[in-house]
Amino acid sequence: xxxxxxxxxxxxxxxxxxxxxxxxxxxxxxxxxxxxxxxxxxxxxxxxxxxxxxxxxxxxxx
Length: 62
Ligand SMILES: [Zn+2]
Fold this sequence. Notes:
By secondary structure, the chain is mainly beta. The protein has a single domain (4-60), classed as Rubrerythrin, domain 2. Helices cover 8% and strands 37% of the residues. Zinc ion binds next to loops.
């Protein structure tokens, strides 16, 4: 089963809807970043990530 990424916040999970924001997820995504401490990560701040977890860099709706 392929992992899916949220089309809104890019959070990666196996769910059809994002566990963080409830938005529909997509199986069409590329790039993966792991955020351990969003407050200390410049990349997380650029991507507006506020919760630790795994995120896709690009997500396309499918
Ligand atoms: Zn989300």
